[in-house]
Design goal:
By secondary structure, the protein is an alpha+beta fold. It has helices spanning about 1-10, 15-30, 30-50, 55-80, 155-160, 180-189; strands at about 90-100, 105-115, 125-130, 135-145, 160-175. A hairpin with a 2-residue loop joins strand 1 and strand 2 (about 105-115). The radius of gyration is 22 Å and the shape is elongated.
Length: about 190
């Protein structure tokens, strides 16, 4: 019954931690209030665990707190990147995913290598025409930036893509990322 389920969970703090991290991670992306409530609940349970001297529960609660902190930092990153919407940026980037064509417009996922505006590793998806980029290809581009469309937000956020854009000008450098190029070659084979 109810009591045996509580006992089962109480004896497995890492299971509680895993469930709590999942809930906080999923809900945290949709509402900052959830992160605040997680902090309040964490404080109550953490205090109780300290009073009872339950070290395994303290560790489990700390893991949940780390998940909530990660969500909070990601939300701050998204808000920071959204300040660049409707602006332009010059970047050097590597194409991470093969492009796909839709009505003569191509969509590519790229990762910033060098930019004044963005830190290295920032991922964007960009629309361009008509040049098809290959995975691993390094480019220099001028991009008009946009927020992620609401229709694709969940999919893009799960890929750590928080900003999109349209390529205004594109220059191929002739260089390639060795790892991504090798993966692309195997995929094509």
């Amino acid at each position: 019954g109810k009591n045996s389920m509580f006992d089962y969970l109480r004896k497995r703090p890492m299971l509680i931690s895993a469930i709590g991290c999942c809930i906080v991670s999923v809900c945290g992306f949709y509402s900052e209030i959830v992160l605040f409530l997680a902090a309040v609940i964490f404080t109550v349970f953490f205090s109780a665990a300290i009073i009872k001297g339950n070290n395994s529960m303290i560790i489990a609660l700390c893991l949940i707190l780390l998940a909530a902190l990660n969500c909070f930092l990601t939300i701050l990153k998204i808000q920071n990147l959204n300040t660049f919407a409707n602006s332009k940026a010059s970047i050097t980037a590597v194409a991470c995913e093969n492009t796909y064509k839709s009505e003569e417009i191509y969509r590519s996922e790229i990762e910033v290598i060098n930019s004044v505006s963005f830190e290295k590793g920032t991922r964007l998806y960009v629309w361009h025409r008509p040049k098809n980029l290959k995975s691993g290809e390094i480019i220099k581009a001028e991009i008009k930036l946009n927020k992620i469309s609401e229709d694709y937000k969940a999919s893009n956020y799960s890929d750590n893509i928080f900003l999109s854009g349209n390529i205004i000008s594109l220059e191929r450098t002739g260089e390639r990322d060795p790892v991504l190029s090798a993966v692309d070659s195997v995929r094509e084979y």
